[in-house]
Structure formats: C-alpha cells, structure tokens
Amino acid sequence: MRIRDPDKHALQLETILEAAKICFARSGFHWTSTEAICSEAGVSSGKLFHYFPNKKAIILAVVHQQTSQTATYIGELLQRADLSAALLEFLDVVLHLAADGQERRLILEIAAEATRDDDVGALNAAADTLLAKGLTALLNGAAERGQVKLVVPLEHAVRFLMIVIDGIFNRVSIDAGFDPAGERDSLRTIIRNILCISGETPDA
Amino acid sequence: MRIRDPDKHALQLETILEAAKICFARSGFHWTSTEAICSEAGVSSGKLFHYFPNKKAIILAVVHQQTSQTATYIGELLQRADLSAALLEFLDVVLHLAADGQERRLILEIAAEATRDDDVGALNAAADTLLAKGLTALLNGAAERGQVKLVVPLEHAVRFLMIVIDGIFNRVSIDAGFDPAGERDSLRTIIRNILCISGETPDA
Questions:
Q1: Could you tell me which chain B residue has the CA closest to the CA of A175?
Q2: Could you name the domain of life of the organism this protein comes from (chains A, B) (predicted)?
Q3: Domains (range + CATH), chain B
Q4: By the 8 A CB rule, do B175 and A165 touch?
Q5: At residue A104, does pLDDT exceed 90?
Q6: CB A71 within 8 A of CB A130
C-alpha cells in the first residue's frame, strides 16, 4: 500500500492552481487548455488529471481558493482592536488587487464566467454573500465600538462599500489611465468622511 | 430625382435603432441577427441595409446614440441654477437606468463588446471621457457657486463618482437582490455627506 504524503499532495495542488491562475489571467478560461496549465506548472497531464478530472474542476477550485482566502483575511481583520482601521486596510487590499494585472484579469474573468456557467455563478454568488457578511461584521463591530458613525442604515452602508469595490475593478478595466494606487489617499478621505472615522473630521 | 423626406428618414432610422436596442438587450450583440432586427422593427431587410451596411454599423450607431443622449442631458443639467441638485438628479437617472432591465442589459452588452471590438471600444472610451468631463463641469461649477465643498481634489472626486456609477451597474448584474431604487435615499445621504451639500450637515 502506497502511503500518500499530505504535504507533497498539498504542494502539487498549489503548484497546479498557481499555474492555472497565470494561464487563466493571460488567456481567459475558454482559451486556456489543460496542456497549457501542465506546461506552466511543469507537471504531466497524468498528474493534473489525478487531481482534477477536467478544466472546469480547476476553474471551480480557483474560485473556491479565492473565496477561502477572502474569508480567512476577513476573519483576521475581525480580530483587530481598531475595526475602522481594518476596514481601511481592506480597501487598500482592494486597490492593490485592482492594480495587479494578473489578479485583476483573474477576478474579471471569474465575474464573466459566472454569467456563463451556473456552477461558477453559484460559487461566485456565495463569495459575494461572504464578502457582504464580512463587511457587515466589520462595520457593525466598528459602530458598536464607536469607531465609525453610520449616516445610513448598516445594510445600505455595506451595499455602498460593495458598489465602490465593484466600481474600482470596473474602472481599471475600462479606463487605461486609472491608477488605483493614485486614488488611495482620496478614497481614504472619502470613506473616512462617510463613516465619520475618528481622527479626521468630515471637513478635514 | 427623388426628394428625400428628412423627417421620414429620421423616423425610420429611429425605429430601426429602437428595435436593435430591444434585440441587443434581449439576446446580446452576437446572437442578434439583422433579420431579428428587421422583424422587431417591421421593416424589410432592403430598408435596413439602406441605412446600415451591416450589423456592426447598427451597434456603433446605438453606442453613438447613447453617448449623444448623455451629452445632451449633461448639457441641460449644466444650465441649472443649482448644480448640486443637478448632480443628485443625475445619480437618480443612473439608478433608474440600472433598475431598467433593458437599459441595463444594453449598457452591460456595450461594455462587454467594448473589450472585444476595437471600434466599439474606442466609441465607449469616448463616451467614458465625455461623462468624466460632464461630471467635472458639474462638480466644478457647483464648487465655484459654493453648492458643494470638495474634501478631495476635483479629479479624484470625479473618479470616485465614476467608480460609484460603474459599481451600481455591476451590482445589479451580480446581485439579483440588489434594488437600485431601494438604495436611493442612502446613496443621496452618502453623496450629500461626501460633497457637504448645503441643507444637510455631514452628520445628518
């Protein structure tokens, strides 16, 4: 009986998923072949098919991994003492992802595939709900601690943040001159203003 | 020599474009045939090809018409005495368009086609620039008249509004439960808050 090495197993899975993300971001889901992923990962097709029965299984695993990373990150942010600072840090990560060509193309590719494939759509909708719940917990916690002051009901404030996050990814894909990092200071000022985050008055 | 009736000409063009918009919103650009547009418009294919050599010419005319309508509307808003109210009215129109299934699908279809076709992309980029310039004129005018107070530099405030507008259209396409009309009051409060629009303090 062959003993399976769990560390090696996880490492190979990770290698294949990282290669798949590079290929998907470069060529899109539909124009990426499993051969291209094998070549990028430096694994045989036999090895790839040992982990994933087909390309769609790889796409679903990539979306699942992205969602799981978001959940872990929001979970970490919720442990912070200053939840308003945690929220601003989350927006920094959004700007950082939007500025990263590969990450941005992958996220937009997932969004497009979600409209075409029901299974990817369902996973993406679950990721969207998870993000909304995470932002709700962050904002609610910050409000309870007096770190933010909500000028609109909590669920509307969350939806506004979701609008802003979506809009940032849209802008970079529409406007070649849009530089996410260049918007950071203004975005922080505006969000601080909306949430009346202590340390800066709305007039600052 | 046949005398062309300019009113009849404009009316037929308008009929074909309206029919094309219905078809494009229903089936997407690629899945709409010129036959389907003829059928929807109640015109012969000879008549349609008299005005448009091919489907792409119709697509470009639709995008051009949308852009021209936006330019006219922003031009009207710029004539108003209260430019901050005009800006809030513009956001109402955005929410209204986002809530209108046909308009929304058409706008998203144009955005998707813009990534696939360079000519549609160029027209769409021009529309984007026109919108940014219109918002800049509105915000700048409102600031000069003391109707808004900008907490960030003008160009960043405009980019933030563009982020919000994009994000609204994205949200309705991602989240089936997102109701643009239901966000109106909160969105107005947030935008008033950001722009320190007189009549409401940031804390209101």
A1: B125
A2: Bacteria
A3: 1-53 (1.10.10.60), 56-195 (1.10.357.10)
A4: no
A5: no
A6: yes
